[in-house]
Request: fold
Amino acid sequence: MRSRTQAILGIAVFVVGVAGCTPDSVPGIGSTAPTTVPPTTTTDPSNPATTTIRRASATTIPRTAATAATTVPATGPTVTRATTTTTVAHPTAPTTTAPTPPGSTPPAATNRKPLFVHYYLWWDSAHWKSKVGTTYAATTQASLPATLAANGCTGSTRYTGDTLLDVPAAPSLYSQDDSRTFVRHVQEASAAGIDGFVVSWSGSGTAAQTAATTTFSRRLAMLVSAVAAHNAVAGARPFKLMIGYQGLNNSRSARTTAAVANDLAYFVRAYASSPVFRVPAYGTKPVVMFLDSRKFSVPALHAIIDPLHRRVTFVGDEHGLTDWNRGASAVFDGDGWYWSSQNPYTNPGSFEQLRALSGTLHAEHKLWFSPLAAGYNKSNFGLAGSCVPRNGTQTLRMLYSGNATSNPDGWMLISWNEFLENTYIEPSLRYGAADLVAIRQLLP
Reply:
């Protein structure tokens, strides 16, 4: 296994020629002034008032995994559920060099907890165009689609239809219909010390669905093959997958109980026996986080989960003690909290909220997966959302330090590639690989 220094250098190659991508210094906790990453700038001759960042020549991490897809068994032997309650050891969380948030106690050093990252399967040419507009999509993507003010929140664009502040590093507007995209993402994440992806997925809702029924299911199969190929390379750092089941449809309404049950039954048929979904820290069963579970009644959750529970470890998305205590404890093996907009500057009390939830979960011998984010921004382009500035990598470090006091059994970082909400950490044109370098430094 490579040393920490070698791992960091492996990530840093993504930022050759891109200024400011090494982790910045971390100001004091009380400071709300953003810490900016100095960009390499130039002026657009067609618009002298607009300053853009130019991409340097792309340098990639040497690939160790085979690019050829490997076949993952569609079915497998039944994994017998030994007990109805999973007992988990809960040692204290690791220390970091990040600042300690107000009102929290620095955690003691101990074994490393797995870190997974929420991963989305949306991206292809049509989806990129719907987010950056056709004008920018027609360019070479050598410059950013928008500018970002020094406050880390206010953005502006000269491209009609653009709603994005950033795009991925080369190749920019990639397609997840290309298997090489998954190979690259797995390699980049693994090199940063990330243990796997929580793959956002839903199926067709039909009983007879297959991997070919929907685009998401086809892409999920491609990602599984990419992970299997990565893990098959001698000496490769193991990489795993979990599922983040999308409980809501595109209209943000809860899917029907029957549709969810059919989707999850398909997942069990296709992947419950796959080693790609077997995370040793959490047993032999695949882990499924039921996103937006709080939008479903407890009886509906029982109807969906109980028939599959002996083959799957189910984690809820219950936001706090009130949600958890409504009866979710009788349904789930643990809880996560998809909290992408957690703000360590304006809401330091959020750390105590997580500690309270974690304390209850651990008292009930349940798993606790802490959220983590590098920033959040939906405050521009009519999206009518809020902003948590990245301030370089300060926000990521503050949330890691503060949320570690909740003694998580694992981390679910938001996100690898959610560019609309600006929570992405994959190498990008604006930030390079700064977040991946910071993650490699934070992990013990």
Observations:
- The radius of gyration is 21 Å.
